[in-house]
Structure formats: structure tokens, C-alpha cells
Amino acid sequence: MGGAKKPTTANKDKSTGSKDTKKKKDKGEGEPKKAEITVIVNEQQALKIIQNSKVVTVQDLARQTGVKISAVNAFLKESTNKGIVKRVGGYSGHHLYQAVSS
């Protein structure tokens, strides 16, 4: 009927002081480390992957080379301008790329 008691100011100070004394665990202590991601695309490795597959997406190439998506996207745009790779499909940023057959 009356509900819970409101803590007095003395009790509030006691409860907040005990939280500071607890030792906090570091977030990265027990977790496995993530893979190191590089920024530079190894052109020979990327071109080999593109030539060995029918089509490749930016996300797929980034995963296979271990490089950030933005770096792979810049590499594919540059390769398209050079005529090494051509865009064959896709939509809204999810394009498909294919090696140009010589």
C-alpha cells in the first residue's frame, strides 16, 4: 500500500561509494583479437582473385584480400578507368565486377 521507502541522503552516499571500490574488468581482456585490416590493396592478388572468378563484388574482394571496403572500392574504380576491370551489373553501390578478357 505504501510502496518502497525512499533512501535517505546518508544511504544514497553509502550506495554510490561502494560502486567506486569495485574493480572493473577490461573489455579486451578475455576476448579474441580481431584480424588486422590493411588499407593498401595488393594489386596482383586482387587481379588474380578477379580473374579466377566469374564476377566479384566489392565486399567479396575486401573479405578475400583482408582490405577495407573503401580501399577495394577505390581500387576497382581505378581499374575500371584503366580498362582492366568492367562493371557488369548490380545496383545502388552493390556492383558486380568482371575482368576484361584480352
How would you characterize this protein structure?
Strand 2 and strand 3 (94-99) form a beta hairpin. Helix content is 44%, strand content 15%. The longest helix has 14 residues, at 69-82. It has a three-stranded antiparallel sheet with strand order 1-3-2. With 102 residues, the chain is an alpha+beta fold. It has a domain at 43-99: Arc Repressor Mutant, subunit A (Orthogonal Bundle). The chain is elongated, with a radius of gyration of 27 Å. The mean pLDDT is 81.
How would you sum up the major sheet? 3 strands, antiparallel
| Proportion of residues in helical segments | 40-55%
Strand arrangement within the widest β-sheet reads: 1-3-2
The average pLDDT value, as a whole number, equals 81
- Provide the CATH top-level class of the domain at 43-99: Mainly Alpha
Distance between the termini: 85 Å
From the alpha-carbon coordinates, what is the Rg to the nearest angstrom?
A: 27 Å
Shape: elongated
Task: State the total count of DSSP E strands.
Answer: 3
CATH homology superfamily name of the domain at 43-99: Winged helix-like DNA-binding domain superfamily/Winged helix DNA-binding domain
